[in-house]
Every structure is written in C-alpha cells, then in structure tokens.
Amino acid sequence: MPVAFQNLTYVVRSHADRNAKVTLISAATGYFRPGQMTALMGASGSGKTTLLDVLAGRKTVGETSGSIRFGGEAPSPMFLRRYTGYVEQFDTLIEMLTPAEMLLYTAELKCPVSEPLEGKRARVDTLIEALGLNGCRNTRIGSPLVKGISGGQAKRTNVGLALITSPRVLFLDEPTTGLDSTTANEVMATVRSLTKTGITICSTIHSPTQKCLNMFGMVLLLLGGRIVYFGEQGGAMVEYFAPKAHLLTEPVDDMLGNQAEWIVDLTTQANKEGRAEEFAGLYQASSLCQQAASSTQALASKGSNISPHTLAALSTQRGTVTSVWHAVAVMLKYRTKGNLLSPAWVGARIAGQIVMAALAMLLFHGIGQNFAQTNLINISAILFIWGAIPLFNASSYIPSLYLERPLYYRERSDGLYRPITYICSRLFDEVVLTVVVTAVFSVSVWFVLKLQGQFTVFWLSNLATNILGVEFAYLSAGLGSTLDVANAMLPAYGASLMFTAGFFLRKPAIPVYLRWYTYINPVRYAWGASMINQFAGTNTELFPDQEILHYFELSGSCWAYIGYQMCFVVVLFLATWVVTAYVKHAKR
Ligand SMILES: Nc1ncnc2c1ncn2[C@@H]1O[C@H](COP(=O)(O)OP(=O)(O)OP(=O)(O)O)[C@@H](O)[C@H]1O
C-alpha cells in the first residue's frame, strides 16, 4: 500500500506563547512505496517524529491540512489501525511475559475474535521466525532491574507487536534508540527483510551508521519542518548536497566515506546557521522536487484494491475489534496469573498489611473483651487504625501504576482495549488479592484481639477500606501530572479523612463549615461499622451517663455503615474509570 502526502502542514499552539501558533511541518509533499524502506532524517528537532505522527494519525493536538492517501484512500482512524503498524521510540512491553506471550496477547486483542486461536499462534510463530526471536521466545522480557531479554530482542519484540495484524504500512520512530551500533544494524536488517513481503516502511532515524543508512531505499530530509531533500539514498543524495556544502559559513568535515554522518553534520550546521529556509527553497526549485510532486500525484490518485464494503465497515467501526468481555478475559489470561505469582507485585501490596496486623496483635492482643472504662479508648483506637490505615497501603505501588502509563497509552493507541477493560481487569487482580489477604489478616486479628460482634462485619469493613485505597491509588496515578503529584494525593486525602472521622475530634466539635465532610468520609463509616459491631447492645459507658457510641455520635446498623462504604467503592470506581478514559497527560 503506497502512502502519498501533498502539501502537508501541521500547526500547533506554541509551548512558549499560548496565544501563538507554530508551524512544525510546512507544505510537505512525498510518498512511500510498497516494498521499500524510507528514512526520515534531519537534525534534532527538525520535525521527523512530528511528520511520522501526522502521517500515522497519532497526533492528538494541533491542526493538519493537506492530503494524506493510503493506497489512494483518505484513511479513517480505524483504517489506520487495520492497515498500519506503529513502533514507538521506547519499548512498552509487559515485563512478566515472554516475547511469544506478549505477541500472542497482542494478537488476541488486535485480531478479530472470529480468527481461531491457532491462526493467531501461527502469526506469532511466523513473526518470531522473521524477527529472529527464536532464541528468546520463552525468556521473560524483564525490566531494567530484573534482567530478561536483551535491548535488541526487546526492540524486535516491539516491532513484532506492530506487525501482528499483518499491516501494509509500518511506521517506526527512532527504532535504534538506546542500541549499540551492531545491535542497531541487526534490528534494522531484520526490519528491512520485511520489505520482501511488500510492506511499506517509513522510519525516523537520527544518526544512522553508514551500514544502517545503506539499508534504506529513499531518504526524506527535514530541516525546520521543511523538506530539504527527498530522493534516493546513496550517490544521488551526495551529488545533491555536495554543491551546497560551500554555502555554509562553517565548513563541515570531509565525508571520508561516511555519507550518513556527513549529511547529518551538513544539515545540522545549516540549521545552526539559520539556513533551513534557504535549503528548503533550493529543494523546491530542484528537479527532484518536481519529480516527487508528480510521483506523489500519481500514487495519490491510484485506486485502492480494498473493497468498498471493507472501507465502509472501517469508517464506521468502533475503536477496538474485540468486545469488552473478550478483552477483559484476555487481560486476565495473560496478566492476572503473572501478577498474582509475582513476589514483587504481591509483596508491594501485602507488606503494609503484614506490619499492621503484626503490630495490632502484639500491642492489642485480648483487648476486645475487656470493657473496663480505661480500655475503651484503646479498643476505639485500634478499630480506628484498622479502619483508616489500609487506605494508605496502596500508596507504596502508586509509582508502578504511574510508570505503566506509557504501556497503557500505547495499547490504547493501538486499539487493543477500551479504558473500562483496562480498569476492570486491573482492579480484578487487586480485588482478588485483597479479598484473600484481608480475610487472612482479619481472622488473625479478630481472634487474637478477641473482638466482639460479627466477624463478617469486621472483615467486610476492612475489605471495603482496602479496595477504596486501591481505587484511590489508580485514581491518583491517572490524575497526577507527575509522579510526585500522584504520590502526594493519597496521603493528603487519607489525612483529611482521618482528621475528620470523628475520633480525634468528636463530630459536634468539628466546625460547622467542615462537618459536611464527615458525611462523605469513608473512614468514619469503616470505623463506625467496627465500633457499632463491637459495642452495640452493651451499654458501655465511656464517661458516667455517656455511652461510648453516643459519645462518638455513632448510631444505626453496622450493615448500613458497610453499605455506605460500598457506595464509596462504586463512586470511586466510576471516578477512576472516567479519569482513565479522559485524562490524558501525553499530548502529541
Ligand atoms: N507546541 C509546540 N510549540 C513549539 N514548538 C514545538 C511544539 N511541539 C513541538 N515543538 C518543536 O517541534 C520540533 C519538532 O519536534 P520533533 O519531535 O518532531 O523533532 P525530531 O526531529 O523528531 O527531533 P529528535 O530527533 O530530537 O527526536 C522540535 O523542535 C520541538 O521542540
């Protein structure tokens, strides 16, 4: 499928002055042919990634004008998802999966459900073979801290993710970033081998080695968002630029056989000298530009071989090809087991609980059956701690939730799932663990402290507080513009709840202008449920003629308090969903 773009201009609101607009791509005309690899080159900041993103339909801000045709068709978002693949500059992989699992997981979410699993496995096997991943197909991907596959293998796995639906056009953004030159050449050789299938490939590349540059058929060179060269790679490019080198005030080093470095040096120097416009003008006036314009026109007006029925379906289809239920099932299949078996994942979630339960049992053992007046505040205190502190347990893993954002954004852009799918499957993992852990610790604490009332109330109240903490962790990780902001939210909210729950300061003593907050305070309801469970019907007096529940203004059924807690669980779930769906920190 050829890609042709004419007079493509991209304008965005300036970072520096919100009232001004800047043109990042100016009147770009060019094309990418099937079975050919085109390099988007240029000095740093020249607009390579911007042009790639505009062509791939990945821009979320700014205005694009001009025309883009894929096989003669103006692409809809679903068309782009169906026929193109995009490899991001930085790898976004799931560390606990193997490359084979990562590819199959993506295939199950990206390919139609009607395609049998065997067909998807066959796609994975073909890609593993083509990308040279056989040696590591069953090795854990790992992370910078837990070594897994190598950087080159991770990059090739990332390329595989973009290829899983057999796209006709592949975009790559700086695929050699972070790789040594040998590995970079290997990765690019693998990518180049894909052109045999007839796929159209366009890749931004910053400073390629000569060997790497030789793999490309065409080069599109940008300077200040303008095309300064679009033509064949190799001798033609050198011939074009050689007479222009003398225009520079500061001469660049001799080529010494390294065209790639020479071209980058020359254009960077031209940029430094403010000659972007001059070089763009020279290209505009060249015969190369005329040839490019007529070839682009021919490719843009060439009819596509996609049936009208498919085109109509693609223009109306929703953002994903699988249903929410299917996607949730796939997420559970690949990610839940890995999470629940990961010591790091589980450890971060239960460490706080272990410490809290151990301290409660060591310090407060047996106090639940001692209704002596001097002990009542001790009981109230441990029930308060048990109702409030779990809210903070989730803060320990907010950083890991925050750091997962790039993966989530990439998978959303690739159309793997919807926000509700992500949030349901992730919270499912958390809730499964929370149910088990709170049951174990609640039983231990309940019996060691010899608490009174119904165990179920004590446990459910603790479970609800823990789930609220988890939900708030996801909410703050989604809301925080930076990791520090996300980290600060949960402690700040938790502290506000503790101060106004009515234990440190009784409800009547809370100033009227803040008393409303006690009604929307889940900690008060968690503590209240346990207090009523412990003291209801005992007529225990904290002071003469002052029954303890009356003193703290806790009344009614403990089940009603648990009901209120559950309402908070639902409200926070909805808030987390909305934030996950609509708050986007990554604008591109
Ligand atoms: N909103 C904006 N306001 C002003 N300048 C912007 C804005 N957005 C992007 N830019 C600038 O646009 C230019 C193009 O950015 P782009 O990321 O496309 O460059 P690049 O060629 O891919 O660079 P690199 O090789 O360093 O990744 C950069 O100079 C960038 O600072």
From TrEMBL:
<feature type="transmembrane region" description="Helical">
    <location>
        <begin position="455"/>
        <end position="475"/>
    </location>
</feature>
<dbReference type="Pfam" id="PF01061">
    <property type="entry name" value="ABC2_membrane"/>
</dbReference>
<dbReference type="InterPro" id="IPR027417">
    <property type="entry name" value="P-loop_NTPase"/>
</dbReference>
<dbReference type="GO" id="GO:0016020">
    <property type="term" value="C:membrane"/>
</dbReference>
<feature type="transmembrane region" description="Helical">
    <location>
        <begin position="340"/>
        <end position="364"/>
    </location>
</feature>
<feature type="transmembrane region" description="Helical">
    <location>
        <begin position="376"/>
        <end position="403"/>
    </location>
</feature>
<keyword id="KW-0547">Nucleotide-binding</keyword>
<dbReference type="GO" id="GO:0140359">
    <property type="term" value="F:ABC-type transporter activity"/>
</dbReference>
<protein>
    <recommendedName>
        <fullName>ABC transporter domain-containing protein</fullName>
    </recommendedName>
</protein>
<feature type="transmembrane region" description="Helical">
    <location>
        <begin position="487"/>
        <end position="505"/>
    </location>
</feature>
<feature type="transmembrane region" description="Helical">
    <location>
        <begin position="427"/>
        <end position="449"/>
    </location>
</feature>
<dbReference type="InterPro" id="IPR050352">
    <property type="entry name" value="ABCG_transporters"/>
</dbReference>
<dbReference type="InterPro" id="IPR003593">
    <property type="entry name" value="AAA+_ATPase"/>
</dbReference>
<keyword id="KW-0472">Membrane</keyword>
<dbReference type="GO" id="GO:0016887">
    <property type="term" value="F:ATP hydrolysis activity"/>
</dbReference>
<dbReference type="Pfam" id="PF00005">
    <property type="entry name" value="ABC_tran"/>
</dbReference>
<dbReference type="InterPro" id="IPR013525">
    <property type="entry name" value="ABC2_TM"/>
</dbReference>
<keyword id="KW-0067">ATP-binding</keyword>
<keyword id="KW-1133">Transmembrane helix</keyword>
<dbReference type="InterPro" id="IPR003439">
    <property type="entry name" value="ABC_transporter-like_ATP-bd"/>
</dbReference>
<keyword id="KW-0813">Transport</keyword>
<keyword id="KW-0812">Transmembrane</keyword>
<feature type="domain" description="ABC transporter">
    <location>
        <begin position="3"/>
        <end position="249"/>
    </location>
</feature>
<feature type="transmembrane region" description="Helical">
    <location>
        <begin position="559"/>
        <end position="583"/>
    </location>
</feature>
<dbReference type="GO" id="GO:0005524">
    <property type="term" value="F:ATP binding"/>
</dbReference>
